[in-house]
């Protein structure tokens, strides 16, 4: 006899019955699902056929399953008059969650809700991506490479896609050898892998404040500490502060978002970029640039990558297609003259490779042209949009509210009157089915208590105006 | 003036020219590629239109680009009589590589080669996967969810796919609540994320020996130490050794491959599984089970998951579609009653999510049936195959060679006479265009010097017989 079935029930047939009951109770088997045949259950549970028959008759008797002639046993649909039993509560995690973790969990959960006005995520509407073009290219790849599902593209990734990305780096002032490009599962994967290559647990990493909460969390997961320097409106990352910190703190790396910082939307000036690169690379501190939003400039000029000012090869520039073409593809990259071999190695040992299909499709998309034309359209939309959002906030929010004027990207950053708690506004707004992001998650020190971040990626509409009006009312209720 | 262009060249136009030259030298711009228009280059490099014209005329004069009427400037195809200049060597990494790293790099590189008989990877031929079925389902999803590229499925992942995976866990004797399933980018991602959740850097993790080299490397990347227990032919993981180690060493987790261990192919008995689960969970040590090969049993019964013997919820079972359906999809899972919330959170902060398309396609594939029929076919093939491979090794290899008799999986494990160095055989074989894996990479202590691993996943053929004959000759040359 085997112990493949739980060991509490006293009789063999009861054990088999319990196995099926558990699958029904957890929803693994649902109403009208066919349950395993007597023969296959007998094999799987290592019991005789007659034991399985006995179990199934028992389950039939208690009304959980029903036999259908010539077809087998099925899960019986519930009697509508019977109130279903409550489901088992998942076991609690053994790690106590900090308040920040709880807030981040609520933020993450809010991203899964389809019943809210989603001003919480930093992305555009799915309908705005070049879906038809991409889907046609998928069909092309299915035709030309019918075995793609069985093929692995090992890190550093598809050579043609890497060449296309290298080519685009030229437009950011940083001509790139395609051999220095490593394809990753989005920009966060690129940043995490880069950090794993250049840091050891316990090391300290320089970040700006405010910065993307996911970045702070990724740094914490790697066992690293952070030190923050301010990102200032109109200037961006404070180069003097970087110099001061670098003098007094032993830094293992910096992770910076000079082009349209998330959440503040700030563009760091070229002078500040040059200064920061000189300071840090002069001390052999690698810089990991998160250039996720660089292509979404509202003006005519693509902002410069920090790599344009680097002669050491210590600047790693990370990007992705998530904010521009395909959020659901999960493809990004790290451009890393000094570290590409190690990043490719780390990628292999962390998750082997990136999906074959998306790499082939994106290589074709970039190579076939049209990306710049598409970008112009989406940038115009975002630029117009952000103005609408800013105007609406100005109209509806309480006196004392301050708003960024981003020149690129998908978010606006709002400072509320000091009496308004952004986290509380976030919770109340969610109850009114409006998603925003609370300011406190954008700093390791939980600063920005009276700030919120709002996406401006959805096409402007009366419904959004009403949502902002409602947010403004909720904020006014809490101010002064 | 801007410093978006390198700051060494003295004149403005030379800087622009240098930018284009670099792109041509690195292959970013190739023969007949159109180079940026004068206007867009002027914007990107923040120089005047006339400076760009001067730069382009210079590049034309030195023969790098050519003007084509009414069309713009193009990279000039090289004169075939001119020998091209050598390409710049990529900068060397700053971290000294250990011998093990070097050997692993050669192993990884060998996986990218298409000019060898690939007995090195542990997977089947791309043509054997259910490609047509999957491609048809991709077409279905393109039709039904045309905006999938713009849609993000947040961790824990697509609910229907999670339900299907939970359902299959029942066949491994471990009924599962779909809420406990987290979708990941393959099994290695699931294992890495699980380790991040249950361990802190510096902790010690129990593994078996031999075990998959990628696992050892992933553990090292996380700053963890390993302690090894033997995996013995016919028995599998040594439960007594586990008990002894657990008594004397403070373990943070165990990562075990009880079902067709890679590379040894051993199936751990149910008694040993029950014993190990009792020992470790009794001491609150989480077990991460790598059940990548469980579905590829040659016999009629699907081996048991260690979760079948667990009542604590501390056993995490990881799997993927890589070895069965779609290596190139990069989709796997962790089934973790106690830790699913934290693993989903870690997934979000490491790489946000898994690709939308593959999740939707796989959910449909499992739901529509046929997976078991497909599995029967591939299992029969692998079972017959492994016999052919074993026979051929017996025929061609030197006296004193020992071979495993796996009852599932895709690899056979070969002990060579003590005088034969597996790593040397690996290098010589590669020079003869035959890929194998050297034994020393399958243990943290570089044991198994005279072992090799050979894939038996390719359909049997005369060419493979010849390759094994050649390997045998190379081994004979080194033995005695």
TrEMBL record, chains A, B:
Protein family membership: In the C-terminal section; belongs to the class-I pyridoxal-phosphate-dependent aminotransferase family.
Source superkingdom: Bacteria
Record-linked CDD domains: AAT_like, WHTH_GntR
Sequence ranges assigned to domain HTH gntR-type in this UniProt record: 10-78
Annotated stretches, region: Disordered: 76-95
Start-end of Basic and acidic residues biased regions: 78-88
Alphabetically ordered keywords of this record: DNA-binding, Pyridoxal phosphate, Transcription, Transcription regulation
Single Gene Ontology MF annotation: pyridoxal phosphate binding
Pfam families assigned to the protein according to its UniProt record, in alphabetical order: Aminotran_1_2, GntR
Protein name: DNA-binding transcriptional MocR family regulator
